[in-house]
Amino acid sequence: MSDKTSKTDVLIIGASASGLMCAIEAGRRGRKVIVLDHANRAGKKILMSGGGRCNFTNIDIDAANFISHNKHFCKSALSRYTQWDFIAMVNAHGIPYHERDLGKLFCDDSAKDILNMLLEECSNAKVKIQLNCDIDDIEKNADGLFSINTSSGNFQTASLVIASGGLSIPKMCASPLGYKVAEHFNHHIWPTSPGLVPFTLQPHDKGKLEVLSGISVDCMVSNERIQFKENILFTHRGLSGPAILQISSYWKPGETITINLLPELSVIELLAANREKQPQLKLKTVLGDVLPRRLLAVLLGADSIEQPLQNLSRERIGAIAEKLEHWQIKPNATEGYRTAEVTLGGVDCDQLSSKTMESKITPGLYFVGEVVDVTGWLGGYNFQWAWSSGWCAGQVV
Ligand SMILES: Cc1cc2nc3c(=O)[nH]c(=O)nc-3n(C[C@H](O)[C@H](O)[C@H](O)COP(=O)(O)OP(=O)(O)OC[C@H]3O[C@@H](n4cnc5c(N)ncnc54)[C@H](O)[C@@H]3O)c2cc1C
């Protein structure tokens, strides 16, 4: 522990998406900015995001793509610093990128391009980044300045920005610091839970489905509140893939989800039409054109799919359609923070300014990014929230 004291205008805890964006904006305004992080490298989650290619935003950003106890809170920041603003920065740095399904934008080469862009902008704005820095305690002094004791010395600042993210992936340096600081300054925290996370299965289903590991299918996955049409992936632990990650953010323990494995067609019509034309065709031949046979064998039974269509009663066809279009599955649990992409819940938006992210309770204290109770869907929404909320605080700190 160093006994050096440094004074600064703006101190940001968290050198990743939201913290770096805030630092760039504040630095550009001529503020003296220091960013502290306990990790040995900035932006670790940026580097691992999007399978190493960083899905940095989405061309369709809407408040409906975010989960929060205050569904209006995110609107102001998202409209003041939009996906187009971030894309303009990416273009200005000549970073090659492409659009994938559902408006997702990814780097062509590497997530490093995004991190390097942010670090270059920080350097241009004379932002100082201090890594390997453990935060010991934070107080607000009588003179209105925040005092932050760390392993790199004491820092005094007028504006303190908490950009320390959520609890997902502790191995990547996630910590509860942001929630602790919020509580210390009398903020309410909505209970946190892992989001965008694979499901584990009940032992009975796991035993049956683990042979399908590696298979992926385009599906409609739903619960009583929402539905997502994307891929699901069978894994040796359970179920993953975009549609599963999306619904996991809306899942409550004990709840059943419904999977329509053939959202684009009617199984009854397909089987009835084929039975009419070619009654001797086997079930596995007809359905094997639209679904992997291994999956059919597990769900419908290996013997059953050998049956010719002419042997299938109307009731049996109805039961097959029900199984494939309304497959009900009750996950055992999620894989938890170990693999979750985000953390649901967090610092209550009602106690923050939606324009500046400043605390309504403690002036000079700001919360940006994932630590706030705003969680995006899969598809670049979480980074856009980090850029937008970080940018808003950066205008005023
Ligand atoms: C595997 C994975 C893939 C993802 N892919 C995407 C994607 O493609 N698109 C997308 O939009 N979102 C993606 N996300 C989500 C996205 O990474 C986060 O929502 C985003 O990084 C949040 O930014 P943040 O700045 O709020 O927090 P973080 O990026 O989590 O940064 C928090 C920073 O604070 C530091 N910190 C934490 N605790 C302390 C402490 N006690 N002391 C000092 N420093 C501390 C951390 O080291 C870290 O640098 C992904 C997440 C994961 C885990």
Q: What can you see in these coordinates?
A:
- With 397 residues, the protein is of the alpha+beta class.
- The protein contains 13 helices and 21 strands.
- The protein has helices spanning 17-28, 44-48, 73-80, 83-92, 112-124, 177-184, 203-209, 242-248, 267-277, 283-287, 293-300, 314-325, 381-394; strands spanning 5-13, 33-36, 55-58, 66-67, 97-99, 104-107, 128-130, 135-140, 146-150, 153-162, 189-195, 199-201, 216-222, 227-234, 238-240, 257-260, 327-329, 331-334, 342-347, 365-367, 375-376.
- The strands form five sheets. Strands 1, 2, 7, 8, 9, 10 and 20 form a seven-stranded mixed beta sheet that branches. Strands 17-16-13-14-15-12-18 form a seven-stranded antiparallel beta sheet.
- A hairpin with a 4-residue loop joins strand 5 and strand 6.
- The radius of gyration is 25 Å and the shape is elongated.
- The mean pLDDT is 97.
- Flavin-adenine dinucleotide (FAD) binds at residues 13-19, 36-39, 44-45, 48-50, 54-55, 135, 163-165, 168-169, 173-175, 177, 341-342, 369-370, 380-383, 386.
